[in-house]
Automatic annotation (TrEMBL):
Family according to the record: Belongs to the type IB topoisomerase family.
Annotated function: Releases the supercoiling and torsional tension of DNA introduced during the DNA replication and transcription by transiently cleaving and rejoining one strand of the DNA duplex. Introduces a single-strand break via transesterification at the specific target site 5'-[CT]CCTTp site in duplex DNA. The scissile phosphodiester is attacked by the catalytic tyrosine of the enzyme, resulting in the formation of a DNA-(3'-phosphotyrosyl)-enzyme intermediate and the expulsion of a 5'-OH DNA strand. The free DNA strand then undergoes passage around the unbroken strand thus removing DNA supercoils.
The entry's keywords: Coiled coil, DNA-binding, Isomerase, Topoisomerase
Boundaries of every DNA topoisomerase I eukaryotic-type domain copy: 98-376
The EC number(s) this enzyme carries: 5.6.2.1
Catalytic activity, reaction form: ATP-independent breakage of single-stranded DNA, followed by passage and rejoining
Record-linked PANTHER family: DNA TOPOISOMERASE I (PTHR10290), DNA TOPOISOMERASE I, MITOCHONDRIAL (PTHR10290:SF1)
PROSITE patterns: TOPO_IB_2
Gene Ontology biological process terms from the UniProt entry: DNA topological change
Name this protein carries in UniProt: DNA topoisomerase I
Residue ranges of coiled coil: 48-75
SMART domains on file: TOPEUc
Length: 376
């Protein structure tokens, strides 16, 4: 990875060295004490040469590799679902490597450990032939759960997140899910004007929670922000969405860039990617934000009435049943406005409408198919 700028980042280097030291033999640990004094150019050159050798293979050798890949695809790349052969998406497990993450992820550089069959849960029907594990190994578990769409699952070592082997996006199941998503967004078109009128009226509500929900919904609609949710304790990356914004993530400018009532956003969004935006907002939204930020510390929640914190000695196990996270209460409100509506649907709806408007602006009915595809 010497070619990547990741290896110049202090967090990456520190995390890598910490994990590498855990893998070292005792003698190595006594000798290797500073990453700055280590020279990886020889091993790096080996992989560069290997990549270069692949590029200059003869046509016959390339064809042979292609046939081997196709053979693997035929053996492992398909499953039978409801009597039909369906293509599997990612049937290869990622090899060990260094975690990169996106943006400035706090765990970049950590070692992703090798996954063994003992880590993998297989999910198939009871009457099917269970795949054989590699010789000398056994699966962690074999189950028959027809309420989920994954075929195998394991937990990766860096973020302890569960990874899945799923069906290919062109499969019937995936296609139906995508179709339903866009159909829900299409239905929103018939309700969106009413919903927008409702949240505008709610900006003047006597109840603070209703006002906060209305302003959050305005941002989810206008800026296509992700809704955001409470983090479980101990999650390292400090990423937020609209409902979990803190006072420190927002600055108010009475005037900026020639516009009035400008809100400046600066926070880490999904995958630790920075979201920075300056946007003029309607005056009632600006006034409400001033109200929400009054007498609060920078680390306090902006939409504190949408957020629930537990003040007792320990959270009971059913804490979430009594105190739903922010997006659950927001989505419950949206369900009352339209069946199947969630905060996420606004992103799909606004993206689809934007695409449609651009296509209308850039194409003409008499254009050739090639010209229309170019516009697209």
């Amino acid at each position: 990875m010497l070619d990547h700028e990741y290896t110049t980042k202090e967090v990456f280097r520190k995390n890598f060295f910490n994990d590498w030291r855990k893998e070292m033999a005792v003698e190595e640990r006594e000798v290797i004490k500073s990453l700055d004094k280590c020279d990886f150019t020889e091993i790096h050159r080996y992989f560069v040469d290997k990549a270069a050798a692949r590029k200059v293979l003869s046509r016959e050798e390339k064809q042979k590799l292609k046939e081997e890949a196709e053979k693997l695809q035929q053996e492992f790349g398909y499953c039978i679902l409801d009597g039909h052969q369906e293509k599997i998406g990612n049937f290869k497990i990622e090899p060990p490597g260094l975690f990169r993450g996106r943006g400035d992820h706090p765990k970049m550089g950590m070692l992703k450990r090798r996954i063994t069959p003992e880590d993998v849960v297989i999910n198939c029907s009871r009457d099917s032939k269970i795949p054989e594990p590699p010789a000398g190994h056994q699966w962690k578990e074999v189950r028959s759960d027809n309420t989920v769409t994954w075929l195998a699952a394991w937990t990766e070592s860096v973020q302890n997140s569960i990874k899945y082997i799923m069906l290919n996006p062109c499969s019937k199941l995936k296609g139906e899910t995508a179709w339903q998503k866009f159909e829900t967004a299409r239905r929103l078109r018939g309700f969106v004007d009413e919903i927008r009128s409702q949240y505008r009226a709610d900006w003047k509500s006597r109840e603070m929670k209703t006002r906060q929900r209305a302003v959050a919904l305005y941002f989810i609609d206008k800026l296509a922000l992700r809704a955001g949710n409470e983090k479980e304790d101990g999650e390292a990356a400090d990423t937020v969405g609209c409902c979990s914004l803190r006072v420190e993530h927002v600055q108010l400018h009475p005037e900026a860039d020639g516009c009035q009532h400008v809100v400046e956003f600066d926070f880490l969004g999904k995958d630790c990617i920075r979201y920075y935006n300056r946007v003029p907002v309607e005056k009632p939204v600006y006034k409400n934000l001033q109200l929400f930020m009054e007498n609060k510390d920078p680390r306090d929640d902006l939409f504190d009435r949408l957020t629930v914190s537990w003040d007792g000695p320990a959270k009971p196990r059913n804490y979430r049943d009594h105190f739903p996270p922010q997006t659950t209460s927001l989505n419950k409100h949206l369900q009352e406005l339209m069946d199947g509506l969630t905060a996420k649907v606004f992103r799909t709806y606004n993206a689809s409408i934007t695409l449609q408007e651009q296509l209308r602006a850039l194409t003409r009915a008499e254009d050739s198919i090639a010209a229309k595809i170019l516009s697209y």
